[in-house]
Description:
globular; 5 helices; 6 strands; two-stranded parallel sheet; four-stranded mixed β-sheet; Arc Repressor Mutant, subunit A; single chain; 173 residues
Amino acid sequence: xxxxxxxxxxHRTHTVVDSSVGPLTxxxxxxVLTGLYMHRQRHxxxxxxxxxxxxxxxxxxxxxxxxxxxxRRTDFDLPMVLAGTPFQRRVWAALRDIPYGETITYGQLAxxxxxxxxxxxxxxxxxxxxxxxxxxxxxxxxxxxxxxxYGGGLATKxxxxxxxxxxxxxxxx
Length: 173
């Protein structure tokens, strides 16, 4: 399902939850998760587009994020809408198939979506993922296995990967 940007009848709300990678802003349209943004995220939309503050639509999202950061959850089961181009949505759907604690390269992700020559385009789509952590774009690495760009910063990407492998600390902050 794709919603047009800022449809006049949609009801946008947001809340901020604490996490071991810092504050996370959760955004919903009509009660359905459409965004999870880190405090200093590269492609973070302007705050005025997040709607009114209201924690009510985010009870289950916050609960699952707490369980993830406590090490009690390895995947998420939440309704969400990811607004983007058809190509971006294919990339974001494929991200959800990368197992917890594992990584793949941008080239491997391009292969998985049937476009083996689109590694750069996959990287650009990955960088615009509107629901970080839950849609695990942090699990995609460069062709040599090195960490490359991450909207939440490379320190956050390294923390999330180490955390999922069981070698990280309890908090980045």
